[in-house]
Target: DUF1543 domain-containing protein
Amino acid sequence: MKLFMLKIGARPQGRLIEQHDVMFVIANSLSETIKTVNQHWPAVKNNWHLDAWREVKRVGDYQILLSKESLSKDGLSKDNALADNILTDERVDNKLDSQGKQLYFVNLGGYLPGQFEEFHYKTLVIAETLGKATAQVKKTAFYQDYTFDNVDTAKSGVATSHVDDKHQLDLDDIHCVADLLPNDVALTIQPLTEPEKNQLPDDALHIGYLSLKQIKTMID
Model:
């Protein structure tokens, strides 16, 4: 059981240019995400591609773990085995406390003068609250660089960097990843020890056009 972050590209019927969406999908392999994507975006069923993807294992100095939940006879949720990407050591039971932290997905939009375009920066942030996640986003180079003040906002609009789609950093537009997952999947954020930081590499970011035909072959 793995957590995939997908940037999906497609051109729905009647559209002039390619459109994109981001999905977080639980699957055992990239090929297994196809069914979920088709259900999520039926207008482009079997007619889409990936422009980027990532298996989410590590964000900063934290490991991302998944567990399957099942209902006991009394109706209470019970966790089963953790996903296979967990680092194995003797301290597992003591490391499941996420200290109130959450994994947030942020889609930051910004502009450059003279460019007929809205640029985007997508990132994952771990923080205790939406407010603290927002504070982290404001420190990114994208937030500082892809922004400027229009002289005539009545005609040209606001060009400051923002979290889509509020034209400002609005907390409601930052998504808690746990809320995007199926109800029977639990996400745990686990701090990495200093030795583990060297053992678990940063997530590989796979950037580039990946056709549906290619995705179907990726079964590992």
